Amino acid sequence: MRMIQTPRRSSPGRAISLQDALPPLSGPAVGPSQDISGTDLVATARCPGCEGRFPSLDRPTHTHLTVSAGCWAHFEHALALHFSDQRYWPAHQLLTNAYSLQHSRGGDRRALRSVHVHLSALYAQICLRQPEARVIAMRRALSEFDFHESPPTWPAPSASVADVDLSEPKQHLATVERFAYAVLSDWSDHHALAQMLCEI
Ligand SMILES: [Zn+2]
Hints:
Elements lengths: L1 E3 L13 H4 L22 E3 L6 E3 L13 H16 L7 H11 L6 H18 L5 H11 L2 E3 L21 H18 L4 H8 L2
Parallel strand pairs: 1-4
Antiparallel strand pairs: 2-3
Helix pairs in contact: 3-4, 3-6, 4-5, 4-7
Bound molecules: zinc ion.
């Protein structure tokens, strides 16, 4: 297992700014989605990862991501759309990277790896405009490293997956893009680390 503890250099290099990278979005502004179909809603609870409010549910969550059950249900609903309807697939990598980054607050070995891998992948997608295949290959390569330090400051979330539309492919992609850009913007203090990891 290879180990990384601290960044070795911090030159943004070829990256473009988030503002320049942001594509034009169409459709109405996003708002909290209430579509957690097929579940019993008894109350709401704040997710410890994205700090969004979701229905309180009694159901399994992820093994090491710091998620509430309601937040995880919303994300799983999106994944089900991605894998069952190809019109939703273009949003898959962006949503997976942004969501995983935002919810890797556990501090254990798997969470530390997840932070670095998904931060780098999200940065590569948005700021370096790397194609999906390259982003996936880089994510696999970084997964071979062992990371021992969590970010010294954890960004305050400015968006949650509750803002991601689940009703229609075009609006889904638009809201996923907005969510992903918000997450990467929240992590702007760590873009130099992401750039360094993308060069490994
Ligand atoms: Zn959450």
